[in-house]
Amino acid sequence: MADTLEFNEIYQEVKGSMNDGRLRLSRQGVIFKNSKTGKVDNIQASELAEGVWRRVALGHGLKLLTKNGHVYKYDGFRESEFDKLSEFFKVHYRLELAEKDLCVKGWNWGTVRFGGQLLSFDIGEQPVFEIPLSNVSQCTTGKNEVTLEFHQNDDAEVSLMEVRFYVPPTQEDGVDPVEAFAQNVLSKADVIQATGDAICIFRELQCLTPRGRYDIRIYPTFLHLHGKTFDYKIPYTTVLRLFLLPHKDQRQMFFVISLDPPIKQGQTRYHFLILLFSKDEDISLTLNMNEEEVEKRFEGRLTKNMSGSLYEMVSRVMKALVNRKITVPGNFQGHSGAQCITCSYKASSGLLYPLERGFIYVHKPPVHIRFDEISFVNFARGTTTTRSFDFEIETKQGTQYTFSSIEREEYGKLFDFVNAKKLNIKNRGLKEGMKQSYDEYADSDEDQHDAYLERMKEEGKIREENANDSSDGSGEETDESFNPGEEDDDVAEEFDSNASASSSSGDRDSDRDEKKPAKKAKIVKDRKPRRKQLESKKGKDPNAPKRPMSAYMLWLNANRERIKSDHPGISVTDLSKKAGELWKAMSKEKKEVWDSKAEDARRDYEKAMKEYGMGSKSESSRAERSKKKKKKQEKQMKGKAEKKGATSKSSSSKSPAKNMSESFKSKEFVSSDESSSAESKKEDSEEEGLASLPRSSEDSASGSD
């Protein structure tokens, strides 16, 4: 019997929505990882109380009940998997996997049973439907009637919003069955009621999303945002992750709260709550609890009286109440020394933070991408200028994120970070040793750094740098090998009409100012040969035989795969270096084998070229004759133009109409080099009112030819 069972494309029912993910059953318990959010549900084997197998809409489903009343539903199993699951439950969990079918009689009267967090409507011993009470947002009563309202599901096209139960009156005195029904529902329902005093209140905090100033009231089970226009109540169960991110200016801090499901304002959904703090702002905080309650509830994580930076106090209180670790930037450090990169996403500029297990972009719109959902990344040339590049991320679901306008100096640092995290880089391939080593069922933030420990380390680094400031002359590195920007200077100068005016500031260093005019002259001089070179490339015959490879290249093609297998994960440049070393160390006898193969390839090439030349000889001779004829005609026209310029100064007696007809040149006789000069001469002659002498009959005849 296997120790683990794994199932892909399993759906978990949570608040009316079916979330797909991966399910693993092991001796220790049951683990389900949500593919969309990365959230992990872990059920210990000792907590399982009952397992039920039944037929559902998506095939067959598994319902697990725990000893503390929680219910977990997983759908998407095949009927043939029942025997395997039943045996696994019996061996490892000491449970019988019971088969229970739903009642499909269609009756609308029966018995309601409350079990843990589940309301079950049964007919006889068979359930008709079940309602997780955590889905209930409100419960109201009327005469012999109870109405349940549900949370809206944004992922579904159609959502169940309300169910009404008719409760018949009973003969028992002093017991109202309607109120008893409602109390059973409300005791387990996800109904947010601001009863009692808040634990603490933070006044007028700056919030970026949703935008505005909000008072944050901290209650035991939820967070209350109170603004001038809107109020939001956020249960702690909807908080996925907490982030504490330093701003690039080192004077402000972002505190980001990831939410699922999101908070709503009309049709707008906010998946992230982003607060902005100044590092200089301090606060003294007193919790609205006595010291015994604080110690019992928070176990030393909070004290009744606390003081410190405002962002520290908010993050500390949230960490204790939500019971989740705070994610901070890892060991990434950009070109300017910051732990983030300035870039643009869609239409807005923001900051991209490379984390230990993902990327997060703040702030409009906020984006969090986990490494385990990334298919590949790509470094692309900037669309508007070569002084920046784009960083593209494509997920396994096909969603693409493009972060643009990143300074080229950040390329080296970001590339090294992506390489160290073993992410697949587009156009380079996924090599052995570069495969992602993430645990499929690990929580995406379970091994993140502690924010306060990280902050202390950072302060220690700053003190150490200040102490050694005199010895450290230059702490910045420039990445000169940035591939997308190799032709930066040429592109900038080729399209600049005034090289000195293209500089954004007048006080640039003198070296750049001296180089610009010289480079401009070089570009103007070399422009014509470059065009000819392009024309010659364009005219290359694709059917011509290919040149033979050298002995080294023949050997490399035959041994490339062997070198890759001997050195897994080797890059293209390292492979070329290694091949060069092996070829250099090879004996003369072994090289002669490849030299003879190269000689045979050369003979075959020469033979193919002879056959190709005989076939295209007539075409080449025809092209050469037309070329000679064209050159001859251009030479004749040039001589006539010079003669005409010399004689036009001494004669001005002919009519303008005749002059126009005789000085006309057909388009095919005007070369591209002389067209502009000829037109300028024609305009000058017309302005002065000069007319050329009439041609002789021989000249006019040759011109007409």
UniProtKB/TrEMBL annotation:
Compartments (UniProt record): Nucleus, Nucleolus; Nucleus; Chromosome
Transcription regulation is among the record's keywords: yes
Keyword annotations: Chromosome, DNA damage, DNA repair, DNA replication, DNA-binding, Nucleus, Transcription, Transcription regulation
User: Which domain of life does the protein's organism represent?
Assistant: Eukaryota
**GO MF annotations for this entry?**
DNA binding; histone binding; nucleosome binding
Q: Which residues bind DNA?
A: 545-613
Biased segments, Low complexity type: 647-663
The residues covered by the HMG box domain are 545-613
Q: Which SMART domains match?
A: HMG, Rtt106
Region Disordered, as annotated, extends over 458-551, 608-705
For bias kind Acidic residues, which ranges apply?
A: 474-496
Report the InterPro entries cross-referenced here.
Answer: HMG_box_dom (IPR009071), HMG_box_dom_sf (IPR036910), PH-like_dom_sf (IPR011993), RTT106/SPT16-like_middle_dom (IPR013719), RTT106/SSRP1_HistChap/FACT (IPR050454), SSRP1-like_PH1 (IPR048993), SSRP1/POB3 (IPR000969), SSRP1/POB3_N (IPR035417)
Gene Ontology CC annotation, any one: nucleolus
- Bias category Basic residues: which stretches? 517-531
Could you mention a single GO BP entry for this protein?
DNA replication
Bias-annotated ranges (Basic and acidic residues)? 506-516, 532-544, 634-645
Q: Which SUPFAM superfamilies match?
A: HMG-box, PH domain-like
Q: What does this protein do?
A: Component of the FACT complex, a general chromatin factor that acts to reorganize nucleosomes. The FACT complex is involved in multiple processes that require DNA as a template such as mRNA elongation, DNA replication and DNA repair. During transcription elongation the FACT complex acts as a histone chaperone that both destabilizes and restores nucleosomal structure.
Query: Family, per the entry?
Result: Belongs to the SSRP1 family.
Q: What is this protein called?
A: FACT complex subunit SSRP1
- Which species does the entry assign this protein to? Galbula dea
